[in-house]
Structure formats: structure tokens, C-alpha cells
Specification:
- Keywords: Membrane, Transmembrane, Transmembrane helix.
- It is a single chain.
- The chain is rod-shaped.
- The protein is mainly α.
Length: about 50
């Protein structure tokens, strides 16, 4: 059965949805990283001092 949407239109729709999803995930990850970096640096410094 021929679908009302062409295969190209469906592919474009799927790709644009995937791009939106990836952008949202990247944004969330970058926000988490920005929040986590200062704490991570402090933890690493403390661990280094404890080992020395």
C-alpha cells in the first residue's frame, strides 16, 4: 500500500526529530558537566593530596 507520506518526507521527519533529541541531550549533558566540573576538580585535588 502506498503511504500518504513519501519515504523522503518520513526520513526527513525522523532525522529532524533525532537532531532535536540529540540537541536536548547535549544541552542537558553540558549543563551537568558545567555543574560537576568544580566538584570533580576539588575531589581530584583532595585525592592527590591524600595519596602524597
Amino acid at each position: 500500500m502506498p503511504s500518504p507520506l513519501s519515504a523522503d518526507a518520513i526520513c526527513e521527519l525522523i532525522i529532524s526529530l533525532l537532531n532535536l533529541l540529540v540537541n536536548a541531550l547535549m544541552l542537558r549533558q553540558s549543563q551537568k558537566l558545567l555543574l560537576a566540573i568544580p566538584f570533580r576538580v576539588n575531589e581530584l585535588d583532595e585525592e592527590d593530596q591524600g595519596l602524597r
